[in-house]
Amino acid sequence: MSAEQSMYRSIAVKVGTNVITNSRGELDLEILRSLTTQIAELKKHGTDVLLVSSGAVGAGRSIISLPMSYPPVARRQVLSSTGQIKLINTYAELFALHGVTAAQILVTKSDFRDRQHYLNMRTCFSSLLAEKVVPVINENDTVSVSELMFTDNDELSGLVASMMHVDAHIILSHVDGLFDMTGGPGNEKLIGEVDTSDKEFERYIMPNKSEFGRGGMLTKYHIARKLSGFGITVHIANGRTPGILTAIAEGRPVGTKFPPRKPTHERKQWLAHSEGMEKGAVTVNKGAETALCSPLKANSLLPVGIESVHGAFYKGDIIKICNEKGDGIGYGMARYSSEKTKELIGKKGHKPLIHYDYLYINT
After folding, report:
1. Which of 27, 38, 85, 345 supports an S-S bond with 245, CB 3.0-4.6 Å?
2. pLDDT tens-digit profile of 46-64?
3. Measured between alpha carbons, how far apart are the two ends of the chain, in Å?
4. What is the DSSP string of 181-238?
């Protein structure tokens, strides 16, 4: 590969549990060796790479054996905390064979709900990339609580890809991509490219989960579609296929591709990933919903369009916006506290609760 052959200057690569573990759930060194070699080659030719890797729990299974009666949360904490050491040491040793330095970053979903933490993480990742280091990122399962855990590392990698404005996000699974399942068993067809404007596309996808991982193809589809809306190309491919990262970087037709759409402002990208991290919510009337969802003009959320306030929040907090049916239609950064907002409900002539620059509406 030459620098001219690589399509992307920066990529985020997500490696799933079933890619880097064997049938027993233990680390597969041959696959890890192949992936680190490909990443080192990409870096050699000028591509920045952020690696989001699952596998800590799988690595822990090869270190410690726990009885079946062990509490599920404690089981995950023990396996992930012991396995994470083995996982990162394996990456560090394999990257070192190519003269590449790896760094470990463990995060929780809470780290993304605060704007200052978000910016601090971005500075850390940018600094590591500037020093030609490969950040190896994983969820900190030892301290994450179930209510604020990522759906899986697909969600985490999507947040990282969005945060760093990468050119491409590559999701490596144990299957070749997304398949059209409507033909029935034995007649599945690999979908080479997804029309991201097709809101009914998910009908093709079977919502199953992998044996050791937490996520499934439906989760991958939703994240890929969201990222494509931010101007990021997304690929879903089989991480166990030899040379898969090189093939994607060179533009060969492998896996499933989500082409990029019009890029979104950086602050809106952060807000778009706020599901489950909001501090409160407001319900808006039909008129406000129509205005906010208009594809022709960006509108702010004015107090006159608010019907009710839920939860306690302060100025600068992320809040959820719901319609009269209770459906979430977007997220935004509040200009007022919840108490002040209650005072202004239905009133005209006041500044917006959420300015359109700090507003993300689901599409």
Report:
1. 38
2. 899 999 998 888 888 888 8
3. 38
4. -TT-TT--EE-SB--TT-TTGGGG----B-SS-S-BHHHHHHHHHHHHTTT-EEEEEE
Supply angle C-alpha 93, 95, 97, rounded to 5: 75
Query: Cα(223)–Cα(229) distance, rounded to whole angstroms?
Result: 10
The DSSP element (H or E) to which 77 belongs, if any, is helix 72-96
Extract the runs of DSSP E, i.e. beta strands, from the chain: 10-15, 48-53, 101-107, 133-139, 168-173, 179-180, 189-190, 233-238, 256-258, 280-284, 306-310, 318-322, 328-333, 359-361
Q: What is the DSSP secondary-structure string of 270-285?
A: HHHT-TT--SEEEEE-
Please write the tens of the pLDDT for every residue from 239-252: 999 999 999 999 99
> Would you say the pTM of this structure is higher than 0.85?
no
* Sole residue written with tokens 């399509």: 7
Tokens (6 digits) for 248 = 């994607």
